[in-house]
Amino acid sequence: SKYNLKKRRPKMLPEQLNFLDRFDNFYQVIVNAVKEDKVNERDFSLFKNALLTNGFINKESL
Known about the structure:
Distance between the termini: 35 Å
Oligomer: single chain
């Protein structure tokens, strides 16, 4: 195509990258806790609903 969208895409700010890195670490802790049976169904549902409510995940991804 005559437009190169990759060149026009703005880079993420360091603060945004830092947030994503921290969120990824936090999410991995939750995943590991679920795998190790350290999180009960109620707590997992609360966490999942918080992610849905705040737009971090959508229903189609579940």
